[in-house]
């Protein structure tokens, strides 16, 4: 089991409901919980299926150098990049 945090933005209510079955919604669109890898992967499949035009980030604790891993879904100014095995976030320019 590992700590999981999911942050959603502009996703359909049915995805928010699915996440709320397994995780606690501590703020609007912010979910936390302690789940197994299997449940975490199932939740991400739900994100992939139901998020539509929204965006989502999921972070979970691991035994990596940083102590966590994360993945993203949808359009966002923050883009994950790998720098010698360390996951960082690059900010994209504002499009007008």
TrEMBL record:
A Pfam family that the UniProt record links to this protein: Cas_Cas2CT1978
InterPro entries referenced in this protein's UniProt entry, alphabetically: CRISPR-assoc_prot_Cas2_sub
Superkingdom of this protein's organism: Bacteria
Name by which UniProt lists this protein: Type I-E CRISPR-associated endoribonuclease Cas2
Gene3D superfamilies: 3.30.70.240
Organism (species): Exilibacterium tricleocarpae
Lineage: Bacteria, Pseudomonadati, Pseudomonadota, Gammaproteobacteria, Cellvibrionales
